[in-house]
Amino acid sequence: METLRSISELSRLPGPLFLAIGVFDGVHLGHHAVISTCTEHAQAANGTPVVVTFDPHPEKVLRPKAAPHLLTATPHKIALIRDLGVGHLLIITFDKQFAATEPEDFVQQLVKYSNPLREICVGHEWSFGRNRRGNLELLKKMGAHFDFNVIGIPPVTVNGELVSSTTIRQVVETGDLTKAAQMLGRQYTILGTVVHGDYLGKKIGFPTANLSAHNEQFPPNGVYLAEAKLGTVIYPGVVNLGYRPTVSTGKSERTLEIHLLDFDRDIYGQDLEVRFIRYLRPEKKFKNTDMLVRQIEADVKQARELTAA
Description:
By secondary structure, the chain is of the alpha/beta class. It contains ten helices and 14 strands.
């Protein structure tokens, strides 16, 4: 997949261009519908489909104190969009200057650098441009003027409930990962980079990979049976998510760490994609390290039994 970083780069792609535009946080089933429609229409017309998204999430710039937790920060989003078979991705930097762009100017830029622009596909409620004045109606007016088609994808529902990033965040936060998976069309995962920790896990015989998570929406604190994808290989493991109360009294930042079963490699600086398979127990403060070790031994034994089942 080729990643473009400016609208002007569209000019070197063979037309006609078909653009799927959106924030696409989570790359859920509603987003799949936008992207797949764009791709199908492009293939039918021998055109080039391009997914257009924004970095960072617009709410991080427009309302930083009230911005939602992300389901997928940009590195994770790129990987998921690539998995959909997309050939071209345009990532537009979303800053205050871009936020002040009039919606008509944004569309005219797309028209200017596409050879030619044949279609724009968006979610039915997508809004854009200064003060979010741009919407599906404005797009269709401009499409009639500049001779491109506009598709507004209707809502996607699962079991009668509207699929949305907001709903998925809520169910992940409460631990309903089954419902999250139904709306995502995949298991909920967290992508993170392995960073150096305090090496306590290694000292007590259970080395862990400490993750700096790219996306921010965590499930509830606790211990989980999990899988971690490193490159193309998947390893089973035990995740501890929380504040590590036995060894980090008073720590205010949640920690995500995973002990990979039968794994002994240096993977600092590499990305792991973690999938939560089963909740094993709540996080607990133990009186001493020996009691913590015994509990970890029990957790690992349970994880092995579940993995072998």
